[in-house]
Design brief:
The protein is an alpha+beta fold. It is 27% helix and 25% strand. The chain is globular and about 75 Å long.
């Protein structure tokens, strides 16, 4: 799927995988119903992409749950099943320069000045504990004033006035760095918020890359072709030409506005916020725009969107250094704070070295569990079994305190400082127990017998 238009992607994907898309035409409320449906589906072990055509008070179709399934992300990337991370790294490793075009669908409708009215945006409320309706899929685009290198990052946002968005830069990432640089110059920071774009652009916005790498070029790598962009009318920021919505404006580092609480990836409602204000000067959107939503909290979609690039990066780093690493997995149960790593340990202490590498590389990780490569990392129960039978607390624990962590971890200090722990649940050289085994032939007979009986 090389076309960079979200609508083309949706049509082609549903045509190829109709059972993986759920079209809901029954009227639903804009307050909590969509999040409730996502949660109920997940409880039934279902992760279909969702398209809502009748959301009360909203005149546009709402699309959500696009990233809830890893199989679907593999299909987006054209990956062979089971090769998600290798395919992501392969494509992201070939960034493409931007293709600047004069016009695009997003420029079909442009409002500016007094015509800007953010109350018209079709915002949803996700959780009863939220401050109110939120933009959850908003990707803020900013460009370095000296180098022109762009930065993409996700930030929750809610309407604070007819032309104001309250948002949080709690990740303290490159956007925070660019805002701080603007502040030192006594300037505001021009930004554009993209709401609704091809899922490969959305995936690229989660990439963790050095500040001199432009995530828009990573998007080009994922597409296998340069990202087509148009310049915004006021500040000339390059944004996807086929985006559904783009809000252009600036962040004034001298202004703040109340924001939060909001349901975050931790599974808790968080009011930790930088309280930044985006003053919107221009609203651009396609004709009859789609509204793309990412259900927040610890939903599969929210976690996968950030986790797939993070896992891919960690696997690449580990494979560059440790030939014994077989698999890495960030389980849903640990949100972004836990990681499992399976290794074929060649020498005593290697598991510790690998755990220390992960805890050092990923600032969000609090706990890493190392297991042998006979353990299925996608099965929490299997990992806990290894922990129960191959681990001794007095010799197999590493604890490091006073490190930077996530400010959205409710157990961290106010500034986000945290401790980190490694648990070595590998067998070790002095482990001699034999794991029970049922032969493949017996299991095949069991399956046949049960299948025959219905």
């Amino acid at each position: 799927m090389s076309d960079q238009d979200l609508r083309t992607f949706l049509a082609e994907y549903e045509g190829r995988f109709p059972g993986d898309v759920l079209n809901i035409e029954t009227p639903v409320s804009a307050a909590e119903d969509i999040a409730a449906i996502v949660w109920e589906l997940s409880g039934r072990h279902r992760q279909e992409m969702l398209r809502f055509t009748k959301v009360e008070g909203i005149d546009h179709e709402v699309v959500t749950n696009m990233f809830a399934s890893r199989d679907r992300i593999e299909r987006m990337l054209g990956a062979v099943p089971g090769q998600l991370h290798n395919r992501y790294e392969e494509l992201a490793g070939e960034p493409q320069p931007l293709n600047i075009v004069d016009n695009g669908p997003v420029l079909g409708n442009v409002s500016s000045g007094d015509d800007v009215d953010l109350s018209r945006l079709p915002l949803l409320t996700h959780f009863a504990t939220d401050l109110g309706p939120y933009i959850t899929s908003g990707i803020i685009v900013a460009e370095d004033s000296e180098t022109g290198v762009g930065n993409l990052s996700y930030h929750r946002a809610t309407v604070s006035s007819s032309n104001g968005l309250a948002t949080s830069l709690h990740s303290r990432g490159d956007l925070w760095r660019l805002l701080d640089a603007a502040k030192s110059r006594g300037e505001v920071l021009p930004v554009a918020m993209v709401i609704g774009a091809h899922p490969l652009f959305m995936l690229a916005a989660s990439a963790r890359v050095p500040h001199d790498v432009d995530e828009r070029e990573i998007a080009g790598g994922l597409f296998g072709a340069s990202l087509e962009v148009v310049r915004t009318p006021v500040h000339g920021i390059a944004v996807p030409a086929s985006a559904e919505y783009v809000l252009e404006g600036f962040i004034d580092p001298a202004k703040d506005v109340g924001e939060g609480p909001f349901g975050e990836f931790s599974g808790y409602s968080s009011d930790r916020s930088t309280h930044n204000l985006i003053e919107v000067e221009t609203v651009m959107h396609r004709s009859d725009p789609l509204w793309v939503d990412v259900v927040g909290g610890n939903s599969n979609e929210h976690l996968n969107l950030a986790r797939v690039p993070r896992e891919s990066e960690m696997i690449r780093k580990l494979h560059d250094r440790f030939a014994s690493v077989r698999q890495v997995h960030y389980p849903n149960s640990g949100t972004h704070f836990h990681c499992y790593v399976a290794i074929d340990q060649r020498r005593q202490g290697e598991a510790r070295q690998i755990m220390l590498a992960l805890l050092g590389w990923d600032p969000y990780l609090k706990t890493v569990i190392a297991v042998d490569d006979d353990i299925d990392l996608t099965d929490d129960g299997a990992v806990l079994w290894a922990l129960a039978t191959r681990f001794q607390p007095d010799r197999d624990v590493i604890v490091i305190d006073g490190l930077p962590g996530s400010p959205l971890d409710p157990s961290s200090s106010v500034d986000g400082s945290t401790a980190r722990m490694g648990l070595d649940a590998t067998r070790g050289s002095d482990f001699h127990a034999t794991k029970i085994v049922i032969s493949d032939e017996a299991m095949a007979r069991a399956r046949a017998l049960l299948d025959a009986g219905g």
